[in-house]
Each structure stands twice: as C-alpha cells, then as structure tokens.
Amino acid sequence: MAKKRSSDAYGKLVRILIVLFVLALICGAGYMLLDQSIKAQEAENIAQAQQENAALEESYRQAKAEEAAQAAQQVEEIQWPTPKAEGWDVVDLSNYPLTNTRTYSATRQELITSGMLLVNRWHAVPDDLAACEFLGVHATDKSIATANSSVVMLSPAIDALGQMLAGAKADGLEHYNVLEGYRTRESQQKMFDKEAARYSDSLTGDNLTAKVVSAGVSAPGTSEYESGLAFNMSRYLKGDDIMNKKFHELPQSDWMVEHSWEYGIILRFPVQGYPNSTVTDKSYKTGQSTKLDIYRYVGKANAAVMHIMNFCMEEYIEYLIAHPHIAVYQDGALKYEIIRTEDYAGGDATVNVTRTAQNVSVSVDNMNGGGLGGLIIAMSY
User: pLDDT by residue (tens digit) across 54-75?
Assistant: First the structure.
C-alpha cells in the first residue's frame, strides 16, 4: 500500500514537472513572439520616423528654395534709377543694396596708396605711409621728365602720370616737367622751420603755425606732397636756361585742367580763376588759397565724379558720406560703381564687390586721421 502511494506521488510529481515544462515552453514561445512583435513595432516606428524626417527635410528644402527664388525675384525687380542717355551722369544708389557680390581683400599698403587718402591741414598722413615703396619717377618711366633724379612718387601716381602725358602728346602737347613729387616728413619740417623763422620774433604757438600755413608752407604731416600721390607740374624745353615758372599760362596747363581727370588725376587746390578762368574757388574746403600747380592722383572713378560734379577732394568725400553708393554712367552705359563703408579700424580689409567688376580699387579716406576712416571702393566696368 505504501508502495502504491509512493508511485502515485512520483507520478504526480512527474505530471507537475511536465506541466511546468509545458508552461515554460509556452512562456518561452510567448516571450519570443512578444520580442519579435516588439522589434517589428520598433522597426516600423523607426521606418515611419525616417519617412517623416525625410518629408520634413524635403519640405524645408522646398521652403528654402522658394525663399531664395523669391529673394532673387525681388532683386531682379529692383530697378536702378534711369541715367541720362547722353554724356556723363552720377546716379545715387544709396537706397539700393550691392548685389551679386564676392569678397575682395586689400592690404593696408593698398588702402593707403590707392588714391583717396585725404591730406590737408586737418588730416595728417599716417606714419606707416613712409614705409611704402617710393619709386624714382623718371627712372620708372623714361617719358616723364623731372627737375632732378630725386623726384619720387608712389607707383599708382607714376603710372597715371605717364598715361596722362602720353595723352597730352597725342594731342600735340609735350615738354611737361615734374618739379617735385614725394616729400619726406623731415624735408617738410625743414621747410616749415625755415618759414617760421621769418615770423618767430613776433609770433608763437598756433599763431605762428597759422602764419606759416597762410604763407603756403604746410605743417609737417599735413603737406599734400607727403601723400606720395601729388606732384608739381611745370614746363621745360631742352636748351632753356630756366624752367618756366608760369606754367598756368601755357596750353599744357589748360590741357591738364580739362583732361587730367580722364587719367585719374585732379587739380588738388582749385582757386578762383586759377590755373585758368574755368576753375572755381574751393579754398574754403581745401584750406589752401595759395595758387599752386599741384596735381594729385585719386583714381579714374573718383576723378570722374569730382569732374562731373565739380567737387574738390574734400567735397567728394563729404558727398560719399551722405550718398555711400553711387553709379557713374557714360552715354547710358555703367562705367563705375562706388561704395563708401564706415569704421575702418586699421590693418588689412576685406570688402564686398560685384562679381562683374573688371577692376577694383579700395582706399581709406583718412577722415579719422592716421590712415583711418571710411573705405572708398571703386569698381570699374
């Protein structure tokens, strides 16, 4: 009897184990099925998320493309004012942005030698200008006669001067002579001190300086000759005993008054009726009333505006401050585009220019002194 109960217990235990094993198998199969379902759901969720992200990215790309297209269309719809069909015309574009741009990098040396560095009694030359390379004028261009071999200038001025004299020769005028070009600070100081000695017995300080300046000798650092871009013109004929001091009475002078701007050169200090009757007085702007045959390189684009609008250098820069984006047309065709930007703080500079510009010139205007101020960007087409 005891043996039977033991057998029954053993059988019951076996059955329980079998049941537990079956349950374990069912649970394992269920877990596997559940795991597969979860993984399938995760894969489905990931695929759905990827599709939604792709759709969002495509929608974003389309929106940006539409925005760019609208911006391009707006740019195309911006029409500049219509220039005159004939002659020269300056058009104010101050309310119009510069379009289709690229960057242009200019070194500090380029910025202070490209032409628009303003030098007068209120704006001194920067100290680092003296470190630039000054070339012998006649040695650089044999077609330019000079008073002596010591006449030197910066290369942009020499190049423009050579082109101008070639133009004068083509019109039948020759025998130009450059009396003086670049003047060092030390040379200017000696000239100033020599003139000051004439009045030092009766004047001192600012009164003495004012007297010397009114006599035609600029204070050191403020002479246009120190820019390296200015030169004093005269005439010299081989065989003459002396240089002709009355250059303004000659046709060579009249030709320069009329044509020098075409080569990027201006008469620096216009005085009423001097060098000839076509010249109007600008001494109230330049601070220089002495009658001088000093010409100055500023670049073709800038010289064109000064000629068209009868500006001296000071007036032109003031005009650009008020109208920082202008275009210059010749017979209805775009010739130059000029931009002035503010707050140049020194060193090299990178600016925006149009991609279609054939030539670019960037110059600091020195309005803040020390070679600082605004940058004048001239683009030629």
Answer: 776 777 777 676 666 555 544 4
DSSP 8-state symbol, 163: H
HSE-up (13 A, CA, CB side) for residue 106:
23
Residue 53: pLDDT over 50:
yes
Which of 234, 297, 293, 233 is CA-nearest to residue 265?
297
- Chain-centroid distance, C-alpha 186: 31
Other beta carbons within 10 Å of 104: 17
Sequence-distant (≥ 6) Cβ neighbours of residue 340 within 8 angstroms: 320, 321, 324, 325, 365, 374, 375, 376, 377
Pairing of strands 265-267, 230-235: unpaired
Distance CA 279, CA 256 (A): 12
- The first and second tokens of residue 76, run together, are 């195309």
Q: Note whether 294 and 224 are within 8 A (CB).
A: yes
Q: Which amino acid is at 333?
A: A
CA dist 119 and 257 (Å) reads 21
Residue pointed to by tokens 């020769």 = 169
The tens digit of pLDDT for each residue in 211-250 reads 998 888 999 999 999 999 999 999 886 665 445 558 999 9
Distance, CA of 104 to CA of 109 (rounded, Å): 15
Nearest to 318 by CA among 274, 260, 373, 360: 373
Give the E-state strand segments of the chain in sequence order. Answer: 88-92, 101-106, 135-136, 152-153, 176-180, 230-235, 265-267, 294-297, 325-330, 333-344, 349-354, 359-364, 373-380
DSSP classification of residue 122? T
Q: Could you tell me if 374 and 341 are in contact, meaning their C-beta atoms sit under 8 angstroms apart?
A: yes
pLDDT surpasses 50 at 303? yes
The one-letter amino acid code at 121 reads R
Could you tell me how many residues make up the chain? 381
User: 179: which 2 tokens?
Assistant: 């009396």
- Both structure tokens of 365: 């205007």
Helix (H, G, I), strand (E, B) or coil at 237: coil
Q: What separation, in Å, do the N-terminal and C-terminal C-alpha atoms of the chain show?
A: 123
